[in-house]
Amino acid sequence: MQSKHIIFEQPLNERIRTCLRVETLMKRFHYFTSLKGDWSGYTALLGVLEITSLLERGDLKQELMKEIERQHTALKSLSAHKEVDKSKLILILSRQKHALERLHQLNGKLGDHLKRNDFLLAIKQRTSIPGGSCDFDLPELRFWLNQDHGTRVEDLKRWAGPYLELESVIELVLSVIRDSAMPEKVIAENGFFHQTLDPQQSNQLLRISIPGSEGIYPEVSAGKHRYSVRFLNPLPIDDLPSQIKEDVTFLLTRCSL
Known about the structure:
It is a single chain. The protein is of the alpha+beta class. It folds into two domains: 14-178, YacF-like (Orthogonal Bundle); 184-256, Sandwich (YacF-like), CATH 2.60.440.10. It contains eight helices and eight strands. A four-stranded antiparallel beta sheet has the order 1-4-8-2. β6 and β7 form a beta hairpin. The two termini are 35 Å apart.
């Protein structure tokens, strides 16, 4: 039986970095929303607040529009190639058009719909204090947590409404990037691998796949012109991880579109 591979991703620009952060936070949101415990509801609520704080740092909606338009132009130019799956290409181009329409329908800046919600603002202010969301600090939060699971889920989905729309667009953007290249087998000599990046290409994402049974993980340092990968042994987990001294064979996918 083959060992399950673990995929580690490294974004190569700020736009993709933010997309990956939102993707991770939304996966966490869905997981905790599905659980019925009150503390699961609290964790899902914190996820909404965390996404809101992340989106305050820039205009992700505009960035996604630019990225989809860029991808759409690049993919459309492939239609003349005989080896391209035309039906799949048409489907992706159509999904990109619909994604742009959905983004245009999101009025205002993402997160603005929660800025006048006193309940959420009070929780956000207290979360910066260790233990600041105790019942005596936020009795309204305890009241909300005591509601039935269905009521809490309705509230969570209402607060996360624009982010759910955003999630489907980010899923499309990242899937196109992830599918833009095939993995190749490479060797990190003495646990270290480095390579230059072609500045003429639109470098988006690195994907590193290693068997879970290896018991190691990659530490990636990436810039505009080059990147390096060090494979580290994290065990025992309380100690400082050390670089592997043996050669490591892994799958590397350099995603550029």
